[in-house]
Amino acid sequence: MRYLPLTDADRSAMLEVIGAPDVDALFVDVPPEAQLDGPIHGLPMHASEMAVERHMAGLAAQNMAASSVPFFLGAGAYKHHIPASVDHIIQRGEFLTAYTPYQPEIAQGTLQMLFEFQTQVARLYGCAVANASMYDGSTACWEAVAMAGRVTRRSRAVLSGALHPHYTNVVKTMAKFTGDTIADAQPAIQPKADNAGLISRIDDQTSCVVVQYPDILGRLPDLQEIADAAHARGALLIVVNTEPVALGAITSPGELGADIVVGEGQSIGVGLQFGGPYLGLFAVRDPKHVRQMPGRLCGETVDAEGKRGFVLTLSTREQHIRREKATSNICTNSGLCALAFSVHMTLLGEKGLRALATENHRLACIAADTLSALPGVRLLNDAFFNEFTLLLDGDARQIVRDLAAENVLAGVSLGRLYPGHPELSRGLLVAVTETTTEDDIHALAAALKGKLQ
Amino acid sequence: MRYLPLTDADRSAMLEVIGAPDVDALFVDVPPEAQLDGPIHGLPMHASEMAVERHMAGLAAQNMAASSVPFFLGAGAYKHHIPASVDHIIQRGEFLTAYTPYQPEIAQGTLQMLFEFQTQVARLYGCAVANASMYDGSTACWEAVAMAGRVTRRSRAVLSGALHPHYTNVVKTMAKFTGDTIADAQPAIQPKADNAGLISRIDDQTSCVVVQYPDILGRLPDLQEIADAAHARGALLIVVNTEPVALGAITSPGELGADIVVGEGQSIGVGLQFGGPYLGLFAVRDPKHVRQMPGRLCGETVDAEGKRGFVLTLSTREQHIRREKATSNICTNSGLCALAFSVHMTLLGEKGLRALATENHRLACIAADTLSALPGVRLLNDAFFNEFTLLLDGDARQIVRDLAAENVLAGVSLGRLYPGHPELSRGLLVAVTETTTEDDIHALAAALKGKLQ
Amino acid sequence: MNAPNKSGWKPEMTADGETIGGPATYTGNRALMLDEALIFEIGDRNTTGVDLPEPDTATPNRLGGMERAAAIGLPGLSEPETVRHYTRLSRQNYAIDLGLFPLGSCTMKHNPRLNEKVARLPGFADLHPMAPTSTTQGALGVIYELAEWLKTLTGMPAVAMSPKAGAHGELCGILAIRAALEARGDARKVVLCPESAHGTNPATAAFAGYEVENIPATPEGRVDLAALEARLGPDVAAVMITNPNTCGLFERDFRKIADAVHAAGALVYCDGANFNAIVGRVRPGDLGVDAMHINLHKTFSTPHGGGGPGSGPVVFSAALAPFAPLPFVEKTATGYELVEEETAGEHHQQSFGRMTAFHGQMGMFTRALTYMLSHGADGLKQVSEDAVLNANYILRSLEDVLFAPYADSGPCMHEALFGDKGFAEGMTTLDLAKGLIDEGFHPMTMYFPLVVHGAMLVEPTETESKAALDQFIGAMRSVASRAIAGDQSLKTAPHYAPMRRLDETLAARKPVLAWTDPALA
Amino acid sequence: MNAPNKSGWKPEMTADGETIGGPATYTGNRALMLDEALIFEIGDRNTTGVDLPEPDTATPNRLGGMERAAAIGLPGLSEPETVRHYTRLSRQNYAIDLGLFPLGSCTMKHNPRLNEKVARLPGFADLHPMAPTSTTQGALGVIYELAEWLKTLTGMPAVAMSPKAGAHGELCGILAIRAALEARGDARKVVLCPESAHGTNPATAAFAGYEVENIPATPEGRVDLAALEARLGPDVAAVMITNPNTCGLFERDFRKIADAVHAAGALVYCDGANFNAIVGRVRPGDLGVDAMHINLHKTFSTPHGGGGPGSGPVVFSAALAPFAPLPFVEKTATGYELVEEETAGEHHQQSFGRMTAFHGQMGMFTRALTYMLSHGADGLKQVSEDAVLNANYILRSLEDVLFAPYADSGPCMHEALFGDKGFAEGMTTLDLAKGLIDEGFHPMTMYFPLVVHGAMLVEPTETESKAALDQFIGAMRSVASRAIAGDQSLKTAPHYAPMRRLDETLAARKPVLAWTDPALA
Ligand SMILES: Cc1ncc(COP(=O)(O)O)c(C=O)c1O
Ligand SMILES: Cc1ncc(COP(=O)(O)O)c(C=O)c1O
Predict the structure, then answer these.
(1) Residue D358 pLDDT grade (very low, low, confident, very high; cuts 50, 70, 90)
(2) Which string of b and e fits A181-220 if b means at least 16 CB within 10 Å?
(3) Which residue of A159, A232, B269, D311 is 20 to 30 Å from A396, comparing CA positions?
(4) Secondary structure of C259-282 in the HEC alphabet?
């Protein structure tokens, strides 16, 4: 057994030191009836690396890898090119196999990286402080709602109808137990986000308004207007972003008045991975809210010789110190994904991020024009970044499935996101990134045309 | 340009320090007529990582990867399973991007590894001392012949007819220039190696006898007999091994009287890679021959505090010190492949290497029996390790090509190795390793049967 | 000449400013111990390490007036600088790959590289979570196979795969308990936890709207069954017990506790973070557990990555199974199906909802399944046996120098607990830990569990060799004797790490949580 | 307590045995600076880090009596121990990934990680060299494309791809020259090389059966054209000249030299190890070169790997092209073909033969081609310009403190050469180098070329940022002033590396080249 260094001779020598006749003697405190008499039944015995690799490669081969076909899925998870050096760095044993940096003298690598990451995220979001990561965008969204409750001491959250339905569901699930009231809605199928409708739902009990930007249909709501309305009622504005690349092209939520900005960081450095692990980003515009934030924070300090260094700090917010009074129960977060994000962002830099955003938008415009020129296809959005909604003459969900059989992954249908809403069944979300080629766009157009005739 | 850190501002500032008006001024010593006036013609401009990766992946996709089909090629390059940790370790930047360890205080990683590698190779070969690697087995073979000339002060080398024909060709090519005489031969197609014929060619001018073990047809010559005959005439015995895994099952050349043992280390840790980089192994049985060895040697010493450490040593044999009097012109060798070999060998250990050899032999026996049971197929070998020669009722080379079209890589034909020798055209070398499945063997049998009907 | 050392490092000095041990360096580096500035100090906004088309003005703009005007303030580095920056940073970290990492409760075991390789196969790594299920059968198969392994290993009938880490799993379990209680109209208010519990337990219970109360412990370090029984009543929704517990002991009476809890109408949550001690030998399902999370990043070896990601699937008893969250994978005659809100209606009306977008930590699932297949039933049994053997070896090799409060409570399981009793005046667990850093080891978990003064919780795991344990034991004995003897050089340890002791108080008092340009400050 | 430190490390001590700077450790480790024993000391013959079927006695044996009886003596380690062993070892190395690695003549530039990724694509990594060419078209395509790049970049009509490194390429070139001369019945005996040449040049010429004679140099560090012309004659087969030369200077008169050599019936070998200085800006073919090797592991960034592997393709003039070795790749109407002994007859009767089994360093070809495609024609031009700019920046920033013998010979190319003139009595280039180690830099090439006393050859390459150069310059200035001032702490440097200065004399005097069990010794 290749991962187990003890030899039988070692085991005997150690049992002798312990004074136990055999290893069973170490399990005396387990009631006999709870002990198995041999290897557990129903599972295979140990296997060689080669055999295991073959089994797993066999499973992998049953999946249609995104890069192997024309691919247009988004809806909160985006396919971007990740530089090879990102993966090289996150595989450094000193990053990969380290624990949470609780001993800062031998964890400056992780700590300095987190300090840099926090600063990158804060700047991207237009905020003062970001934390060291949450599980993913959807849980970060709920944590933001919970935090808004703590800050405002109110418990009614107003969710935009154009918030990712999974995020909405997570918030609603959690709220069932905390007793918060969640005012949600269906997305309005219209060229512009329904700011007026959203604002009309804000009242004096509202702790926060939650708006996605770009929204689930790819639209770009004017956040300033919502911020003003929320603030006027004493509520916080929470902005959710699921495509950080967009922020290379559009104004940051913080600049537009968001109080808490959360999001999914997967686009930068992390990769699709069938949905996880992803990277929850969490930031606050006003430093005064820091002590209500969930999750770990890394801060600057000095060592005994006065040399600058970094430590985890303000831990009195956290479960391991504050226990039932903690701001969140989160412990393990998305450290390695934060590293991947930070490395990729460092490679991009401001210049690269802007160029990347421009390239995404450019290709998305080509796709929008090409596809909406097809008979039976209409572009819903007035504005978009790299994802937009098409309205098809047909059931988009069935079309997506049919095109998959032709090796074209056409997008995410609104029917898939909002099952049971026939009024949305014609909607198809199409995402375009720098990895999309014009050939891909033409392949999709041709395939779609075939289905709409 | 992602690999170039200088900004235009940096360039200007630096030119100012240098006192040059522009970068062209730094090239004043190049005659103008030899300078190009812009980017060289006929080559593309720089490209993004994504674009380059797509281009290269496109080329890779035009090759039939060994693991994707039933695969039986050997003849000096073998497909073995390489544990994932090997590749992880050789990608550590500290190994991958280091230079030759000329500053030992900051190169102990490479140096200690080389000391361990040298010891592993020496033990595997049954020798006293191994060097820090040569380019590959074929160049190591020539270096051994050249060394035998230095040791014996004779210049006639007798090559076994069953030495890999590429190795023979390398030796003959070099000898054309050094004035050595090379007595070579064609392989005798018979169940046992032709020791008697080989021994009869040894004379008093013979510097060395070169024997491959297992030989090119997969046979296992009795080396002791040849060693005795060579030594009786004052010649050295050079043994060439192209499949180090075999030495987990068969007696080492050193134990059987070989004076110099060289070989190809690719099987352990290195991978097929279409023929390179591979790993030349070079060892001598008697420590008195060390000062005639080519290549780098790592040795033990102590530091100023008496702590054990390692350095490159006996460099007075080498080109950078001895220049035209050096034992070889080799400088860069196969360091990283030596690391891969050493890591894999450390994972295997004696126990694993023996088990690996047994498993190779077991599967080879199954394959030999299964295939030789087919009508029109005869097994040549009396004995073999993991590779054997079949005699087919047909042109083996054409059959190999035809089977490739059916996605079966059947082996290396003798026609491919010895073109222009119709008497060898029925021979097919079949190699079987732990990666070969019984399904693969049956696939080959079925395909072969189809062709021989 | 030695001016611009910007890092602040200085060699030790005598009273009259002579350097001792070695000369000061111009760079502030010490050979391979290399200082590294922040990306904000070395990068700039016009440098990038990627090649992309330069945006031109003809580029379309359909951003609807939201286009960014202000600079973001993100520095870029070329690729060579980037690789070097992070490589240099990484070298300031300790890691399992460097040596024993005996953090109790954290199960820092070897992370096989095969698992990393498998997780990167394009069929897994490059797969969208919302791709049509006809194109993701292999991925759904991984989730299904892993779920089967977890159910078999725990002897429990159901598992929720989506929780993202241990604490998220705890939340999943507690929410299922609350949903089950509410489904029978039983609005209980209290969750009981021992004081030795991990902080996530009370935090989770509180997050789920419960009051948290303490379960008393016996002097031998286990739950006090009698006291617990006395406390049980109609207001108690659940007990949360860690087994093996955080003192490293198996809760001998677990079955009795579970029976008492069930008899009182409450449910049993087991914190399974310590499953490594019993995996393959004991099935929690046989002990009366209703819900238990499993840290794939502990027992099943997915890497900790400097703080995450993890994965915390939760196994459920039959009583709780109907309340498990969405989504999950079902096997049908035609293949694997993903059960989400849409299809849940038919089969799974009582699900308490959704905990996260998408389907869980797929990247961890592929690694964990690879690990399980590698070990098999026999190997996993050996894992727990070796983990327990290693811990007992440490316990018995150190109990003469370090105070071991539960040394007489029977063998420990996968971790050994010590306290600071016997240290010289002024010497603390922290000092010992910092001394251990100089010895080339990561310290054990400090000051947890709370029930032992100056607690030191040592978990070696099964992937340590006897030689590594012996060296660790020798180093612990050496440092412990220095603590007992009051060796003052321990108070200033570490001496050899990239940093001397860091001022955590300053960090919290004047929080600096993001870089600001000193030129602008 | 501090007994078993087996490594031998001790902290610095005062005369009366007090430790200074920090306390001794039990383990001999210093925090992250970890000692590591040999595999022979930690492994054993019964441990393995792979899972394979246990051999059973029923296994067939057709080994014909050659089966192994004796033990081999190979220790095994489990996978966790193996990963840790090599990770710990690796941390005792300096590398480009850690910092500037200014080894003159070695071109230690950044190794892009994309290249590593591409080389590992199964279509390249998992391909047998003798597979039918119908199944290897992509691999042959790589060789062909790379050959086209090399021919275009050098302006030469032919290239041999199989040489395994620079020295092997030199041999290839010299053999082709000898074959060409012999083909015209011209048995010349002498090869001329400057004294500044790399050791491989004379070694190669001797290996190929030539006598080696010196070409005199001018005081400004270039070939003395007049002296060379005087020496040329019917016995001279070839001249071997490095350009840019190893003093870092461009051989201004190269074209004239080549013309004179050709006029004398000899051929021109150019050592192309320094091609990085001119790639994309100057084509050696325009200078009259007949053969030149190119170190893909220098100019084209394939990693040095701690000593290899390399790859040394050789470009040829029309005069030498027919003599190039086998195999090579041709493009035909139906695809790529491999020309080997078999088919060479038709097209290539004069080939001098074969230099190696198979077709060369494919793993390096994929990396180099990836690198070239990434840079393109414009990027490669920028490469040489930045490489030259960086070197001149260093030259001009150090010439006031370090003796620069050719500072007045015009700009340097990709490397800057200094000598030890001006150092205090007893201070050497070696001392400066070891002081640089403490500063966190790998030293420059020392004592090469031989033409300058205490030579220091500094090649920064183009992948260094200005900030890195500035820090290096600062450190060099600091260490140089210490050498000039006679600072004795330099004589005992390095102080902070994993090892103090190693005794190379002892190693050579009593060679210990393999481990032997002390128990048996
Ligand atoms: C006993 C115990 N419970 C729960 C947890 C929480 O797990 P996670 O960090 O994955 O959220 C931990 C991990 O630190 C633990 O040790
Ligand atoms: C000038 C010069 N020539 C030749 C060589 C030899 O190249 P290689 O080490 O690849 O054999 C080198 C490399 O060290 C060199 O610097």
Answers:
(1) very high
(2) ebbbbebebeebbbbeebbebbeeebbbbbbbbbbbbbbb
(3) A159
(4) HHHHHCCCEEEEEHHHHHHCCCCE
Q: Mind listing the pLDDT tens digit for each residue in D439-476?
A: 999 999 999 999 999 999 999 999 999 999 999 999 99
Q: Is B1 on the interface with A (CB under 8 A)?
A: no
Residue D311: pLDDT band with limits 50, 70, 90: very high
Furthest-apart CA atoms within chain B: distance in Å: 82
Report the pLDDT value the prediction gives residue C154, as an integer from 0 to 100: 97
Q: What angle do CA A330, A333, A335 make, to 5 degrees?
A: 155
Residue to substitute in C107, C200, C461 for testing ligand 1 pocket (most ligand atoms within 8 angstroms of CB): C200
| Residue owning the nearest CA to atom 12 of ligand 1 | C273
* CA D36 to centroid of chain Cα atoms: 28
- B&C contacts, CB < 8 Å: 45
Are residues D165 and B94, on separate chains, in Cβ contact within 8 Å?
no
Say yes or no for a CB contact (<8 Å) between C212 and A273.
no
Q: Which residue's CA is minimally distant from atom 16 of ligand 1?
A: C105
Tell me the percentage of chain C whose pLDDT exceeds 90: 89
C-beta of residue A326 within 8 angstroms of C-beta of residue C199? yes
| Residue A262 · residue A371 · CB < 8 Å | no
Element (H, E) at A264: strand A260-264
CB–CB of C360/C311 below 8 Å? yes
User: Do the Cβ atoms of D97 and C84 come within 8 Å?
Assistant: yes
Query: Which candidate from C32, C80, C112 shows the least CB-CB separation from B5?
Result: C80
Distance from CA of D16 to the nearest CA of A (A): 27
CA of C415 to the centre of ligand 2 (A): 55
- For the entire predicted model, the pTM comes to 0.97
- Interface contact flag, B106 C116, Cβ < 8 Å: no
Contact yes or no for D131/B275 (Cβ under 8 A): no
Give residue C98 CA to ligand 2 midpoint distance, Å. 35
Please check whether residue A141 is in contact with residue A167, taking contact to mean a CB–CB distance below 8 angstroms.
Answer: yes
Question: What's the pLDDT at C15?
Answer: 64
Cα Rg, chain A, nearest whole Å? 25
B83 CB neighbours in chain A (<8 A) are: 49
pLDDT of residue D13: 62
Of D149, D148, D90, D162, the residue nearest D362 (C-alpha): D162
CB D87 within 8 A of CB B88: no
Which of D200, D201, D304, D356 has the most ligand 2 atoms within 8 A of CB, as the residue to mutate? D200
Which residue type occupies B3?
A: Y
Could you say which residues of chain B have pLDDT below 70? none
Query: What CA–CA distances, in Å, run from A307 to C28, C217, C501, C521?
Result: 11, 44, 10, 20
- pLDDT value at residue C2: 43
Closest ligand to residue C314's CA: 1
First and final C-alpha spacing in chain B: 60
3-state helix, strand, coil in chain C (%, to 5): 35, 15, 50
Cβ–ligand 2 distance for D310 under 6 Å, the answer yes
Torsion of CA B274, B54, D369, B417, to 10 degrees: 20
Question: Which of D177, D197, D194 minimizes the C-alpha distance to D186?
Answer: D177
Diameter over CA atoms, chain C = 83
